[in-house]
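Re: that chain you flagged

S.,

Sorry for the slow reply, it's been a week of failed gels. I finally had a moment to sit down with the sequence you sent. For the record, here it is as I used it:
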Amino acid sequence: MKEKIKAVFFDLDGTLVDKKTETIPQSTQDALKMLQCNGIKVFIASGRPPIWAAYVREQFEFVFDGKVLFNGQYCVDASDVPFYRHPLTNTQCCAILDWMQDHPSISCNFMESDYVYSNFSSAGNQAVEDPARCLNYDTYQISPQIGPELDEEILRRVPGIKSARWNDSSTDLIPGDGGKSVGMEKMLEHFGLHRNQCMAFGDGANDIEMLQYAAIGVAMGNGTDEVKQAADYVTDPVDGDGIHNALRHFGLIS
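Prediction finished late last night. Pasting the structure tokens below so you have them in one place:
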């Protein structure tokens, strides 16, 4: 028998945030507030950097109890103070840079705790830096714009990393011993909680491990078939009150 749920983790894009409108539905906002009123911890678990999480705060006046960022490599408390950091090693960064030299046309985003830059930017709206910067500053993930057909090649070239793919044209390269489930574990430990006491919501491939880690994994109705197969429960889409409906289904809100 599962323990009482005391914490819920939410992916951002496609789960909390409707990708079509880039907003958090009102029903979702209301549901998160009800969770906290019921004494349940509310966490973000995303591949996004801390600076993007600030965007959520601007459109939704709500204080999350903590955030798991960079696909689990960086955890902060409610005051955005980090208590867990797990960047890529210099050896891993060097190997990624070597791989990039063989693919000079591929754009990569490099993500530090407070800065995101690219090796070049075709859109013109991204900071551009020498990629070698990653050897001097803690870099939590490197995100090349590549399709799944290149995953095997880069994982072979760069030992000790893994690919946290979130769509067909981009992936996040992170330490092989990292991931959203690791970040969740660190967050739960920080609050004296256990995985049997948590629920997780997600919609994409990089959410599968966190749905499987949680006592109850919920896939959004707009999620991929792969994530739905990995979930314990499939709710309605993000724009169809999916989060509110699932939390009510499991008795966490009324």
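What I noticed first: The helical segments are 26-37, 50-59, 90-101, 151-157, 180-190, 208-213, 225-230, 242-249.

Talk soon,
D.
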